[in-house]
Amino acid sequence: MLDKEGIAKRIAKEIKDGYYVNLGIGIPTLVANYIPKDIDVVLQSENGLLGMGPFPFEGEEDADLINAGKQTITMLPGSSVFDSAMSFGMIRAKKVNLTILGAMEVSENGDIANWKIPGKMVKGMGGAMDLVASAENIIVAMQHVNKAGESKLLSKCSLPLTGVNCVKKIVTELAVLDVLPDGGFKLLERAPGVSVEEIKKATAGKLIIEGEIPEMII
């Protein structure tokens, strides 16, 4: 079973040379620390930054440099800073190749709920609405089950939706799964030490298993 760092490490393997990548709040922000050194990637933050680097070391933080989740970050040589209007123009014009988001629920047809739990106060949807509406490649980084042990991979989301039919791939502490165009979670890889049976029990939505499922390499 993976921890949050392990999920981020596995997702980093999905990033290709030359990609512009947006990292959402939560686990996705950790991906910046695991991007291979031999590929050229530009990280975009919707609050107005291209060229985001890894998190700063303790004592080297700059309070003026933050990501969309208000965490202190670093900037790489050649980075640029601009207003949020230009940033969302990039997103809406589909200039971002890959978006990595956290989620509270994902349905078997690719719907995502990641912004509101009824009864809890939230400030708003933020940039997630634009990201899910505009991105052509969305990977979700999430826990497979909630604190009560209930599946977060469902046949239908119970929480308010952020976007519909948009998630392409999911990486959890248990598995890597594709969301198929005609519905269903296709199991691609198992986390180290996790059995297919454990993944079956933790998945409420339609799970598709074909052949031997390899253990993921991170």
Count the DSSP helices.
4
Number of domains: 1
**What's the architecture, going by CATH?**
3-Layer(aba) Sandwich
**How are the strands of the biggest sheet laid out side by side?**
4-3-2-1-5-8-10-11-12-13
Shape: globular
Describe the model:
This protein has one domain (4-208): Glutaconate Coenzyme A-transferase (3-Layer(aba) Sandwich). Helices cover 15% and strands 23% of the residues. It is built from four helices and 13 strands. The chain has helices at 4-12, 84-92, 128-134, 196-202, and strands at 20-23, 42-45, 49-52, 75-81, 98-102, 105-107, 112-113, 138-141, 153-154, 169-171, 175-179, 185-190, 207-208. The strands form two sheets. It has a ten-stranded mixed β-sheet with strand order 4-3-2-1-5-8-10-11-12-13, sandwiched between helices. Strands 7-6-9 form a three-stranded mixed β-sheet, with no helix packed on it. The longest helix has 9 residues, at 4-12. The radius of gyration is 17 Å and the shape is globular. The protein starts with a helix and ends in a 10-residue tail after the last strand.
Keywords:
single chain; 218 residues; alpha/beta; Glutaconate Coenzyme A-transferase; ten-stranded mixed beta sheet; 4 helices; globular
Please sum up the structure shown.
The protein is of the alpha/beta class.
Question: Could you give the topology of this structure?
Answer:
Elements: H1 4-12, E1 20-23, E2 42-45, E3 49-52, E4 75-81, H2 84-92, E5 98-102, E6 105-107, E7 112-113, H3 128-134, E8 138-141, E9 153-154, E10 169-171, E11 175-179, E12 185-190, H4 196-202, E13 207-208
Parallel strand pairs: 1-2, 1-5, 5-8, 6-9, 8-10, 12-13
Antiparallel strand pairs: 2-3, 3-4, 6-7, 10-11, 11-12
